[in-house]
């Protein structure tokens, strides 16, 4: 069943996306607590942004192919958010979202942190949902 | 290559971290370990004797942890960086060398370059003896009424309860006294105890009343507080005490508190007499009476007791205590008289409060009694009897009273009536009104008795107290108005009653004028006293719609910061300002006040008196690394408590030594503890590397357009003439790069006979053609440098290159400077068009007047990245833009914004076509070259625990939450920070901010300049709103608005500005007991806010409708972000002086020169007399605007021409002739005086009324209506609609 396969893939990519998200959260926390230089931090975080977005879009494409409309529907808002967020990013030549000169602003930092937590929660829930879907399909297939 | 540099980012961090360590955490031991190259991050903690921590991680402190981590990594990084960097460079050079046209590149050389910095060892600063300590000019509070007794009381207080009670009490008490007395605090505590009993009953009664009032007690409390607070202002100290006592009571019941407070006010007078006042005040006399009244109190049973106690707290209070009751009776009376005596009463009022605290207790009783009782009533009467007596007394004491006496008598008879009068007096100022009513409340109690005596009073009586207590609240709630204006109309309940009395008294005395304001206005004879009274109370308030002259002619003075310990020196307001002179106790208070909270700092200001301390150990808190300052608390001789984190630290032995008197034993005589601004010479631990030499690199535009403007000659001439004054020592390095289509370097080796130009045509991947002799020692190569400066303008005179390779030139400059650090000065006239960093014109001239401005953000991040790289290498980029066409300031300024540089803009600069632009440029440049400079600087802002800095404004790079990386610091740079209250500041009386700037002086000394600002904490919203520093606030708002422009849109920013203004006025209005309709009332602390807001909306940065070049706008925004407050205000709202009739009246005498002080005028055409001449100080330029009707004597006497028609146009300041007339002398003295306050003299432009150039002057008349913008009056009308 394509169904099953998609879910499995969704499951894997989800793991990676979650990993990235956790990295983000840790990084912002470090910034806030003064451990690291914002330039370093942005340099290490920026390369992760696009891959995360890419992964997310990738498994949504898989959902699309598999006709998993409900899962896709759940993820559409996030895709829209990602696109918008990237379009409104600060002017910068490299990939990424974070600008070391503004990241230390209280609002920006707390916004990034909040975003990190919310997305992590979303990914986690999605993860368990996919897991559930995969098991269900496995059982029904067998 | 550049790319490589970027990766160096790794470096950046290192550098940055290093600096971090320096400033912050000297503690880490690393310094020693890692130090070698990087000098180790400075750790001072080790020094501290006490530190148990051994070398390694001295950062025991929590903070330390953070620091420690970075530190370790840093040094390592640093080393690696340096090495890697050198490698890079070498590689580059080699690679490029082939390409280079004429270059001698040697890897060896390169390395040398790298090392020099290291090898160069700065002489370690010698110890400076401490300069004589200059007593801080600070005027701490004014001790308006230093009630010593009161003070003492206040000091001890510990906050009791935070609840409503507290508020009420606070509010009622004036002031900061915020500190509610805790039980333990004073004798008063006992008082409290008693009160409790009494209060217990009272509370219930009170609550009821509130209910009846229908007004939430809480709200009411604040309202009162507000009302009071103003009064408090008048006599801060006393209030404290008051509070304390009241506090005791309040805890029990809010109602109590309220009533007390009111009572207090009423009592206030008596108390006054009680406390310190006795001697000073007439009240003392009254004191005598009070005792009598005491009798009654006794009857009061509770009150007396309480009374007794309070006295204890008070010096004489006891008596006074007795008094209070009496005074209670009195108050009313006094109230009646108040009007006349107003001046006096206020004072007494303040005092009273203190005593009030005592009374309060009694008050509490009264209320109860009121509610219930006849019995109490019985008592009251007695007391009443007393009061009258006391009344008699007071009058005696009061000169004025007699007149008032007339009324008083009435009041005497009918306390209520008297109550009424007070209000009237209060009427003057609604706010005060609110207050008084409250105070009145207490009196009522006393009155209560009277009422009894009085037939009607009784009826009114009960209500009054209640109403009193409540009424105020209602007021606060917003209903008050009605009640005030037309008492009858408003409240059905007690209020009406209360008002009834009020009004009736009024009617009697004044003819029954409903509106307090009108009343006050009509009370012509009383107005003077009223004014004095309200000012004394600090309850002054202004109806902005009525008041045409809102601008103080003598200039706006920064509000004084009132500290309980007024003997402590606070930081000068020129250096450190807070938007709120009282720190809100909690976030909710701040949000209710709806004001921006932030600080503005001008850290490197040129100071005349700066104590410099050199010691082995700089005493700092072990936990938060705060430097010891005047606001710490010594615990015995050997320990001190940090005022930021409250850790108790040990005091090193060395600190016992007083360098001035050369004696041991008293740490409080150390300059560190006597000065709020001080400079330390930092020991080794504060150095990451040997202090760098002063290094200056000039990057000059030599394209065709640039040559045409003729600026190059001016720069070279100025440099030549100022060469001796360039700050630095024998190691000072200087270098030059020019750019057009290519980049030129100038080799000026010591052994060379002439300057050699190296041109690099490789734009895309630029490199430094030769590692040596591009930056040369100014001392040793002086002749070559001079030769170069003389020939440079000629050398490029024939150029036809019209392109600008600014980006590559900057990259090369960065590579050249990065091993050392220093200052890059870029002068550009055109849009960069070649190589990396090339830009395109983005401005559409047709959109200049549009509502929403586009392209305010950078087009590329090239300049920002470059700035960050520079910042990491301790290089700052300063920019001069001399453009006549668009240069995309929005993008270019990035190179200065993030590297701690400064930005100057001289639009349309041209030597022959626009000669007026030459003067400012030359003087600015001269100042720029010679002014002080600090290298490799970092600034850290620490704040009392609970406060956090959230946003920074200025030019720098934020390296961590409270650390600014400033590769260079100059004396004209200002910074702003927004502050957030993260934890409530309960139990804290003062909050402090400390800014520590660690820098390397141009002489190679590592120094730390520390500024400490201490502010009182206040839980009362109204007090916070009425103690705003409006100039600081508008400056902070401007900075925030600039940010808003960049992140959102211009219209958003404009709207936000107006909203901020509306919010502030709303917050004030909410706190009023009697807000009026159809007016915009503002306390003095906010009265200029609308004016400034409007000026800001019309400033170049934010204006809409008028055609404004994008570059001009962006530069104006940069200025708003970076100018120190004083200069910023000149730009936002220029000073306008009439100069046609200068006189010596009120003049200053400075250095035997008579400096006239004409009053400032509003910036409105209606203030310009047709026969006048006006001087406008607009920051960068001064204008003298001569109107056509000017007397020819004046023209002749000052300008040296026979008549108006003969005035040449335009005139610059060198052509303001030195004439032998008195007029000329006065004018020149005035101008000289104003100039002396500027970083560099501004040109003076004389404009005739019929000259088209008058627009320069007219555009600053921001009070007037212009195309597409409102006039001040219209703006006020608009605000009125917005303020709900």
Layout of helices and strands, plus pairs?
The complex is a heterodimer of chains A (142) and B (1284).
Chain A: H1 2-32, H2 38-66, H3 69-87, H4 106-141
Chain B: H1 2-5, H2 11-23, H3 30-38, H4 62-99, H5 107-119, H6 148-154, H7 164-172, H8 188-199, H9 201-213, H10 217-234, H11 237-252, H12 254-267, H13 269-274, H14 277-280, H15 283-287, H16 289-300, H17 302-313, H18 317-336, H19 338-341, H20 344-371, H21 374-397, H22 401-405, H23 407-413, H24 415-419, H25 421-428, H26 430-440, H27 442-447, H28 449-453, H29 455-460, H30 463-470, H31 472-477, H32 480-485, H33 487-490, H34 494-510, H35 516-522, H36 524-537, E1 542-543, E2 576-578, E3 583-584, H37 587-593, E4 598-601, E5 612-614, E6 633-635, E7 639-641, E8 648-650, E9 657-658, E10 663-664, H38 671-674, E11 677-681, E12 695-701, H39 704-709, H40 711-722, E13 733-739, E14 743-747, E15 756-760, E16 775-777, H41 782-795, H42 806-817, E17 822-828, H43 862-872, E18 875-881, H44 889-892, H45 894-897, E19 903-905, H46 918-930, E20 934-943, E21 947-953, E22 957-960, E23 963-969, E24 975-981, E25 990-1001, E26 1006-1018, H47 1021-1025, H48 1030-1047, H49 1050-1071, E27 1081-1082, H50 1089-1097, H51 1110-1122, H52 1125-1132, E28 1135-1138, ...
Parallel strand pairs in B: 3-26, 5-11, 12-13, 12-17, 17-18, 18-19, 32-33
Antiparallel strand pairs in B: 1-27, 2-4, 4-24, 6-7, 7-8, 9-10, 11-26, 13-14, 13-16, 14-15, 20-23, 20-25, 21-24, 22-23, 25-26, 28-31, 29-30, 31-32
């Amino acid at each position: 069943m394509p169904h099953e396969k998609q879910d499995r893939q969704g499951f894997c990519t989800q793991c990676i996306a979650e990993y990235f998200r956790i990295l983000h959260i840790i990084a912002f926390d470090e910034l806030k607590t003064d451990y690291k230089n914002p330039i370093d931090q942005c340099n290490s975080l920026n390369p992760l942004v696009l891959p995360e977005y890419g992964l997310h879009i990738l498994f949504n494409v898989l959902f699309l192919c598999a006709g998993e409309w409900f899962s896709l529907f759940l993820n559409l808002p996030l895709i829209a958010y990602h696109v918008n967020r990237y379009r409104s990013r600060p002017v910068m030549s490299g990939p990424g979202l974070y600008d070391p000169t503004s990241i230390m602003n209280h609002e920006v930092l707390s916004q990034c942190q909040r975003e990190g937590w919310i997305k992590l929660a979303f990914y986690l829930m999605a993860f368990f949902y996919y897991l559930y879907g995969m098991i269900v399909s496995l059982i029904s297939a067998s | 290559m550049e790319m490589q540099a970027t990766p160096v980012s790794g470096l950046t961090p290192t550098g940055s971290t290093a600096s971090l360590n320096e400033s912050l955490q000297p503690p880490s031991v690393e310094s020693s370990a890692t130090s070698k190259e990087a000098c180790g991050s400075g750790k001072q903690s080790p020094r501290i004797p006490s530190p148990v921590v051994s070398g390694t991680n001295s950062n025991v402190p929590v903070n330390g942890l953070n620091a420690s981590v970075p530190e370790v990594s840093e040094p390592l990084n640093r080393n690696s960086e340096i090495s890697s960097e050198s490698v890079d460079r070498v590689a580059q050079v080699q690679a490029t060398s082939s390409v280079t046209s004429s270059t001698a590149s040697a890897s060896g050389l390169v390395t040398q370059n790298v090392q020099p910095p290291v090898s160069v060892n700065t002489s370690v600063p010698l110890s400076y003896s401490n300069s004589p300590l200059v007593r801080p000019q600070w005027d701490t509070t004014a001790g308006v009424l230093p009630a010593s007794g009161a003070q003492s009381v206040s000091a001890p207080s510990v906050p009791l309860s935070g609840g409503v009670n507290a508020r009420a009490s606070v509010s009622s008490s004036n002031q900061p006294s915020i500190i509610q007395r805790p039980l333990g605090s004073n004798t008063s505590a006992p008082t409290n105890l008693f009160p409790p009993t009494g209060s217990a009953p009272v509370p219930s009664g009170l609550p009821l009343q509130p209910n009846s009032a229908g007004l939430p007690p809480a709200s009411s409390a604040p309202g009162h507080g507000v009302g009071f607070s103003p009064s408090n202002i008048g006599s801060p100290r006393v209030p404290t005490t008051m509070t304390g006592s009241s506090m005791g009571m309040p805890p029990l019941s809010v109602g109590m508190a309220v009533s007390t407070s009111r009572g207090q006010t009423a009592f206030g007078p008596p108390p006054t007499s009680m406390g310190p006042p006795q001697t000073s005040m007439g009240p003392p006399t009254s004191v005598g009476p009070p005792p009598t009244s005491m009798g009654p109190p006794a009857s009061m049973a509770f009150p007396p007791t309480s009374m007794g106690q309070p006295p204890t707290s008070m010096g004489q209070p006891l008596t006074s205590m007795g008094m209070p009751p009496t005074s209670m009776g009195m108050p009313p009376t006094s109230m009646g008289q108040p009007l006349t005596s107003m001046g006096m009463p206020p004072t007494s009022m303040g005092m009273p409060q203190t005593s009030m605290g005592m009374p309060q207790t009694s008050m509490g009783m009264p209320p109860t009694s009121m509610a219930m009782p006849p019995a109490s009533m019985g008592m009251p009467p007695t007391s009443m009897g007393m009061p009258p007596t006391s009344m008699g007394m007071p009058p005696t004491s009061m000169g004025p009273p007699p007149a008032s006496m007339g009324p008083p008598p009435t009041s005497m008879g009918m306390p209520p009536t008297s109550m009424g009068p007070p209000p009237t007096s209060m009427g003057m100022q609604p706010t005060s009104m609110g207050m008084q009513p409250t105070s009145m409340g207490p009196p009522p109690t006393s009155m209560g008795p009277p009422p009894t005596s009085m037939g009607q009073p009784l009826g009114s009586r009960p209500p009054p107290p209640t109403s009193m207590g409540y009424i105020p609240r209602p007021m606060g709630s917003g209903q008050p108005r009605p009640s005030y204006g037309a008492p009858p109309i408003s409240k059905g309940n007690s209020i009406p009653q209360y008002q009834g009395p009020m009004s009736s008294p009024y009617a009697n005395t004044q003819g029954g004028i409903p509106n307090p304001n009108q009343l006050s206005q009509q009370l012509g004879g009383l107005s003077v006293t009223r004014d004095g009274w309200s000012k004394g109370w600090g309850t002054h308030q202004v109806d902005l719609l009525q008041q045409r002259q809102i601008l103080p002619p003598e200039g706006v003075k920064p509000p004084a910061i009132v500290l309980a310990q007024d003997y402590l020196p606070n930081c000068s307001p020129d250096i450190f300002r807070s938007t709120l002179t009282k720190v809100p106790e909690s976030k909710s208070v701040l949000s209710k006040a709806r004001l921006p909270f932030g600080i503005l700092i001008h850290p490197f200001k040129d100071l005349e008196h700066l104590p410099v301390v050199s010691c082995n150990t700089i005493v700092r808190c072990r936990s938060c690394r705060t430097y010891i300052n005047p606001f710490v608390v010594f615990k015995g001789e050997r320990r001190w408590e940090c005022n930021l984190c409250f850790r108790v630290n040990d005091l090193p032995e060395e600190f016992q030594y007083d360098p001035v008197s050369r004696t041991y034993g008293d740490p409080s005589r150390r300059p560190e503890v006597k000065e709020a601004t001080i400079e330390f010479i930092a020991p080794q631990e504060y150095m990451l590397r040997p202090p760098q030499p002063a290094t200056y690199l000039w990057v000059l535009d030599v394209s065709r357009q640039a040559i045409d403007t003729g600026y190059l000659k001016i720069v070279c001439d100025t440099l030549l003439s100022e060469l001796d004054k360039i700050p630095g020592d024998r190691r000072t390095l200087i270098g030059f790069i020019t750019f057009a289509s290519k980049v030129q370097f100038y080799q000026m080796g010591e052994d060379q006979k002439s300057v050699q130009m190296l041109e690099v045509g490789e734009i895309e991947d630029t490199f430094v053609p030769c590692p040596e002799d591009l930056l040369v020692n100014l001392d040793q190569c002086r002749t070559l440098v001079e030769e170069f400066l003389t020939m440079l303008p000629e050398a490029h005179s024939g150029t036809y290159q019209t392109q600008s390779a600014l980006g590559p030139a900057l990259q090369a400059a960065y590579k050249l400077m990065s091993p050392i650090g220093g200052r890059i000065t870029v002068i550009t006239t055109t849009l960069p068009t070649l190589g990396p960093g090339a830009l395109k014109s983005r401005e559409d001239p047709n959109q200049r007047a549009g509502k929403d401005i586009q392209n305010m953000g950078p087009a590329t991040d090239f300049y920002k990245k470059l700035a960050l790289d520079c910042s990491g290498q301790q290089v700052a980029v300063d920019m001069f833009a001399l453009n006549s066409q668009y240069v995309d300031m929005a993008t270019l300024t990035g190179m200065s914004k993030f590297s701690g540089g400064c930005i100057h803009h001289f639009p349309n600069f041209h030597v022959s076509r626009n000669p007026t632009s030459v003067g400012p440029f030359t003087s600015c440049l001269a100042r720029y070259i010679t002014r002080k400079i600090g290298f490799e600087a970092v600034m850290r802002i620490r704040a009392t625990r609970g406060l956090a800095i959230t946003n920074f404004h200025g030019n720098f790079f934020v390296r961590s939450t409270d650390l600014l990386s400033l590769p260079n610091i100059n004396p004209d740079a200002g910074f702003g920070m927004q502050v957030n209250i993260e934890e409530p500041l309960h139990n804290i009386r003062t909050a402090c901010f400390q800014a520590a700037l660690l820098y390397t002086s141009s002489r190679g000394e590592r120094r730390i300049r520390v500024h400490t600002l201490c502010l009182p904490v206040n839980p009362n919203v109204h007090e916070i709103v009425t103690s705003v520093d409006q100039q600081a606030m508008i400056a902070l708002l401007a900075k925030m608005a600039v940010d808003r422009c960049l992140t959102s849109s211009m219209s958003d920013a404009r709207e936000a500005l107006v909203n901020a203004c509306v919010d502030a006025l709303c917050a004030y209005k909410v706190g009023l007991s009697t807000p009026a309709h159809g007016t915009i009332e503002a306390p003095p602390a906010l009265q200029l806010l609308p004016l400034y807001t409007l000026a800001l909306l019309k400033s170049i940065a934010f204006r809409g409708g008028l055609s404004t070049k994008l570059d001009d706008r962006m530069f104006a925004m940069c200025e708003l972000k970076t100018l120190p407050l004083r200069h910023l205000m000149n730009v936002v709202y220029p000073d306008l002086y009439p100069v046609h009739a200068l006189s010596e009246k009120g003049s200053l005498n400075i250095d035997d020169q008579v400096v006239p002080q004409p009053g400032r005028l509003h910036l409105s055409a209606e203030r310009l007399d047709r026969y006048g001449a006006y001087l406008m100080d607009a920051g960068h330029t001064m204008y003298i605007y001569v109107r056509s009707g000017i007397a020819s004597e004046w023209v002749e006497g000052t300008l040296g021409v026979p008549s108006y028609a003969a005035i040449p146009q335009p005139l610059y300041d060198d052509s303001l002739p030195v004439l032998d007339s008195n007029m000329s002398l006065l004018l020149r003295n005035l101008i000289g005086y104003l100039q002396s306050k500027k970083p560099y003299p501004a040109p003076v432009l004389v404009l005739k009324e019929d000259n088209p150039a008058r627009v320069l002057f007219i555009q600053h008349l921001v009070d007037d209506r212009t195309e597409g913008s409102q006039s001040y009056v219209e703006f006020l009308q608009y605000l009125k609609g917005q303020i709900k």
